[in-house]
Amino acid sequence: MVCHIARKIDSPFDTVLQRTKDALKAEGLEVVSELDLKSIPAGSLGGREAPRSGEVSGDFAHTGARRLIMAQDETGVLLPCNIIIRQTEDGVEVSAIDPEEELSRIENGRSAELAKPVRDKLQSAFAAI
């Protein structure tokens, strides 16, 4: 079972990071925070060095999250708000949870249907990176 949307890009990490933010913005998905995983102290990682990686958090409230939460309060814990950008051996991977797949677990009959516009926006943004 594939539970995420991903794309590998053959470009420098910083270029992919900026293109990701621009593509999300173009889809109306606002970036509300970023976490540079390289900034985590090595001691917190058991002495290992953090990978070249970052996390972008998006605010998807205007794409259906409010409707999802109104349909069932607990839906908020499943919302797809994180996009991970990481350096791999063969490029930079951008990935996010698949909202339709994740929200299909909620048995209220509406969650998967309400998640589709969010998934469509993420796929469109990923295609534009």
Structural description of this entry:
The structure is a single chain. By secondary structure, the chain is an alpha+beta fold. The protein has one domain (4-128): TT1751-like domain (TATA-Binding Protein, 2-Layer Sandwich). Helices cover 34% and strands 26% of the residues. The chain is built from 4 helices and 5 strands; from the N terminus they run βαββαββαα. The chain has a 5-stranded antiparallel beta sheet. α1 (13-26) crosses α4 (111-128). The chain is globular. The mean pLDDT is 77. InterPro entries: DUF302, TT1751-like_sf. Residues 65-99 form the DUF302 domain.
Within the CATH hierarchy, at the fold level, what is the topology? Answer: TATA-Binding Protein
How many strands, which pairing sense, and closed or not: the largest β-sheet?
5 strands, antiparallel
Q: CATH H level: which superfamily? A: TT1751-like domain
Which geometry do the CA atoms define?
Answer: globular
Straight-line distance between termini: 25 Å
Task: For the structure shown, list the relevant keywords.
single chain, 129 residues, alpha+beta, TATA-Binding Protein, 5 strands, 34% helix, globular, TT1751-like_sf
Summarize the structure.
InterPro entries: DUF302, TT1751-like_sf. The protein is of the alpha+beta class. The protein is built from 4 helices and 5 strands; from the N terminus they run E-H-E-E-H-E-E-H-H.
